[in-house]
Design brief:
Layout: H1 2-25, E1 32-36, H2 37-54, E2 58-63, E3 69-73, H3 74-90, E4 97-105, E5 108-114, H4 122-125, H5 149-159, E6 163-168, E7 174-181
Parallel strand pairs: 2-4
Antiparallel strand pairs: 1-3, 4-5, 5-7, 6-7
Helix pairs in contact: 2-3, 3-5
Length: about 180
Protein backbone atom coordinates (compact mmCIF):
# COMPACT_ATOMS: atom_id res chain seq x y z
CA UNK A 1 0.00 0.00 0.00
CA UNK A 2 2.82 2.36 0.86
CA UNK A 3 4.62 1.64 -2.44
CA UNK A 4 1.39 2.23 -4.36
CA UNK A 5 0.79 5.53 -2.55
CA UNK A 6 4.35 6.70 -3.26
CA UNK A 7 4.03 5.63 -6.90
CA UNK A 8 0.88 7.76 -7.23
CA UNK A 9 2.65 10.70 -5.55
CA UNK A 10 5.67 10.40 -7.86
CA UNK A 11 3.41 10.16 -10.94
CA UNK A 12 1.67 13.36 -9.87
CA UNK A 13 5.01 15.12 -9.46
CA UNK A 14 6.11 14.00 -12.93
CA UNK A 15 2.78 15.23 -14.34
CA UNK A 16 3.28 18.55 -12.56
CA UNK A 17 6.74 18.96 -14.09
CA UNK A 18 5.37 18.13 -17.54
CA UNK A 19 2.57 20.62 -16.94
CA UNK A 20 5.17 23.33 -16.23
CA UNK A 21 6.79 22.62 -19.60
CA UNK A 22 3.42 22.62 -21.38
CA UNK A 23 2.42 25.90 -19.72
CA UNK A 24 5.72 27.45 -20.81
CA UNK A 25 5.23 26.38 -24.42
CA UNK A 26 1.41 26.55 -24.39
CA UNK A 27 1.76 23.04 -25.76
CA UNK A 28 -1.44 21.25 -24.90
CA UNK A 29 -2.87 18.60 -27.19
CA UNK A 30 -6.63 18.98 -27.37
CA UNK A 31 -9.20 16.60 -28.77
CA UNK A 32 -12.26 18.82 -29.15
CA UNK A 33 -15.62 17.07 -28.94
CA UNK A 34 -19.15 17.63 -27.66
CA UNK A 35 -19.15 16.48 -24.05
CA UNK A 36 -21.70 16.39 -21.23
CA UNK A 37 -19.97 18.27 -18.38
CA UNK A 38 -22.19 16.47 -15.88
CA UNK A 39 -20.41 13.23 -16.84
CA UNK A 40 -17.02 14.91 -16.36
CA UNK A 41 -18.05 16.23 -12.96
CA UNK A 42 -19.25 12.78 -11.90
CA UNK A 43 -15.93 11.27 -13.08
CA UNK A 44 -13.94 13.87 -11.14
CA UNK A 45 -16.05 13.29 -8.02
CA UNK A 46 -15.46 9.52 -8.26
CA UNK A 47 -11.73 10.23 -8.50
CA UNK A 48 -11.60 12.21 -5.26
CA UNK A 49 -14.53 11.04 -3.13
CA UNK A 50 -12.50 8.51 -1.13
CA UNK A 51 -9.99 11.18 -0.07
CA UNK A 52 -12.80 13.46 1.06
CA UNK A 53 -14.71 10.72 2.90
CA UNK A 54 -11.48 9.62 4.58
CA UNK A 55 -11.40 13.08 6.17
CA UNK A 56 -15.06 12.82 7.24
CA UNK A 57 -16.22 15.09 4.44
CA UNK A 58 -18.78 14.99 1.67
CA UNK A 59 -19.52 16.35 -1.79
CA UNK A 60 -23.00 17.50 -2.76
CA UNK A 61 -23.68 17.70 -6.48
CA UNK A 62 -26.56 19.85 -7.73
CA UNK A 63 -26.27 19.51 -11.49
CA UNK A 64 -29.09 21.68 -12.83
CA UNK A 65 -27.89 22.69 -16.29
CA UNK A 66 -30.64 21.56 -18.67
CA UNK A 67 -28.14 21.61 -21.56
CA UNK A 68 -24.78 20.47 -20.12
CA UNK A 69 -23.09 19.74 -23.47
CA UNK A 70 -20.06 21.87 -24.39
CA UNK A 71 -17.24 21.52 -26.88
CA UNK A 72 -14.12 20.71 -24.87
CA UNK A 73 -11.37 18.17 -24.32
CA UNK A 74 -12.50 15.31 -22.08
CA UNK A 75 -9.17 14.75 -20.29
CA UNK A 76 -8.23 18.38 -19.71
CA UNK A 77 -11.73 19.41 -18.63
CA UNK A 78 -11.94 16.48 -16.19
CA UNK A 79 -8.54 17.50 -14.80
CA UNK A 80 -9.77 21.08 -14.48
CA UNK A 81 -12.75 19.98 -12.37
CA UNK A 82 -10.62 17.53 -10.38
CA UNK A 83 -8.11 20.30 -9.56
CA UNK A 84 -10.89 22.50 -8.18
CA UNK A 85 -12.27 19.64 -6.07
CA UNK A 86 -8.77 18.71 -4.90
CA UNK A 87 -8.07 22.29 -3.78
CA UNK A 88 -11.44 22.45 -2.02
CA UNK A 89 -10.48 19.29 -0.15
CA UNK A 90 -6.88 20.31 0.60
CA UNK A 91 -7.74 23.79 1.83
CA UNK A 92 -10.61 22.67 4.08
CA UNK A 93 -10.24 21.63 7.68
CA UNK A 94 -11.63 18.39 9.03
CA UNK A 95 -14.88 17.28 7.44
CA UNK A 96 -14.73 19.19 4.15
CA UNK A 97 -18.11 20.15 2.75
CA UNK A 98 -17.90 20.69 -0.98
CA UNK A 99 -20.80 21.73 -3.19
CA UNK A 100 -20.66 21.38 -6.96
CA UNK A 101 -23.41 22.88 -9.07
CA UNK A 102 -24.15 23.67 -12.69
CA UNK A 103 -26.56 25.95 -14.46
CA UNK A 104 -27.01 27.22 -17.97
CA UNK A 105 -26.17 30.74 -19.02
CA UNK A 106 -27.09 32.16 -22.42
CA UNK A 107 -23.87 31.01 -24.13
CA UNK A 108 -22.74 28.04 -22.04
CA UNK A 109 -22.55 26.24 -18.72
CA UNK A 110 -21.51 27.66 -15.35
CA UNK A 111 -19.87 25.17 -12.97
CA UNK A 112 -19.52 26.26 -9.34
CA UNK A 113 -17.31 24.59 -6.73
CA UNK A 114 -17.86 25.88 -3.19
CA UNK A 115 -16.08 24.77 -0.02
CA UNK A 116 -16.06 25.46 3.70
CA UNK A 117 -12.27 25.84 3.76
CA UNK A 118 -9.86 28.43 5.07
CA UNK A 119 -10.75 30.99 2.42
CA UNK A 120 -8.53 33.74 1.03
CA UNK A 121 -8.08 37.44 1.42
CA UNK A 122 -8.08 39.74 -1.64
CA UNK A 123 -4.27 39.75 -1.92
CA UNK A 124 -4.14 35.97 -2.13
CA UNK A 125 -7.06 35.91 -4.60
CA UNK A 126 -5.13 38.20 -6.94
CA UNK A 127 -2.21 35.71 -7.07
CA UNK A 128 -3.77 32.24 -7.06
CA UNK A 129 -3.70 31.79 -10.84
CA UNK A 130 0.06 32.49 -10.99
CA UNK A 131 2.29 29.52 -11.53
CA UNK A 132 3.95 28.17 -8.32
CA UNK A 133 1.86 30.43 -6.05
CA UNK A 134 0.71 28.71 -2.88
CA UNK A 135 -1.18 30.30 -0.03
CA UNK A 136 1.10 30.52 2.99
CA UNK A 137 -1.22 31.75 5.72
CA UNK A 138 -3.37 29.50 7.84
CA UNK A 139 -2.68 25.99 9.07
CA UNK A 140 -1.97 24.36 5.72
CA UNK A 141 1.45 22.84 6.37
CA UNK A 142 0.04 19.49 5.25
CA UNK A 143 -0.97 20.71 1.78
CA UNK A 144 1.13 19.10 -0.95
CA UNK A 145 1.76 20.41 -4.43
CA UNK A 146 3.75 22.83 -6.56
CA UNK A 147 1.16 25.57 -6.95
CA UNK A 148 0.39 24.61 -10.55
CA UNK A 149 -3.23 23.47 -10.33
CA UNK A 150 -4.98 26.81 -10.79
CA UNK A 151 -2.44 27.97 -13.37
CA UNK A 152 -3.26 24.82 -15.35
CA UNK A 153 -7.01 25.42 -14.87
CA UNK A 154 -6.67 28.95 -16.21
CA UNK A 155 -4.64 27.79 -19.24
CA UNK A 156 -7.25 25.14 -20.10
CA UNK A 157 -10.07 27.66 -19.75
CA UNK A 158 -8.26 30.13 -22.01
CA UNK A 159 -7.98 27.40 -24.67
CA UNK A 160 -11.73 26.75 -24.24
CA UNK A 161 -12.53 30.50 -24.40
CA UNK A 162 -13.96 30.08 -20.91
CA UNK A 163 -13.48 32.04 -17.69
CA UNK A 164 -12.92 31.48 -13.99
CA UNK A 165 -13.74 33.75 -11.06
CA UNK A 166 -13.35 33.32 -7.33
CA UNK A 167 -15.31 34.63 -4.37
CA UNK A 168 -13.71 34.07 -1.01
CA UNK A 169 -13.35 35.45 2.46
CA UNK A 170 -10.61 34.43 4.83
CA UNK A 171 -11.92 31.88 7.30
CA UNK A 172 -15.19 31.38 5.42
CA UNK A 173 -14.38 29.23 2.40
CA UNK A 174 -14.19 29.85 -1.32
CA UNK A 175 -16.36 29.55 -4.40
CA UNK A 176 -14.94 29.11 -7.89
CA UNK A 177 -17.18 29.76 -10.90
CA UNK A 178 -16.06 28.26 -14.21
CA UNK A 179 -17.81 29.24 -17.42
CA UNK A 180 -17.52 26.94 -20.45
CA UNK A 181 -19.12 28.10 -23.71
CA UNK A 182 -21.31 25.67 -25.63
CA UNK A 183 -19.15 26.03 -28.74
CA UNK A 184 -15.46 26.90 -28.82
CA UNK A 185 -15.21 29.87 -31.18
Amino acid sequence: GMIKKENIRMNRQVEDILTIARLDRKDFKFHWEAIDVHCLIEDAIQGIILQIEKRGGKIDANLQASNPVVTTDRLHCTNLIYNLLDNANKYSGDSPEIKVSTKNLAMGVLISVKDNGIGMNKTVQSKIFERFYRQTSGNIHNVKGFGLGLSYVKAILEANHGTITVESEFGKGSKFDVFLPFIKE
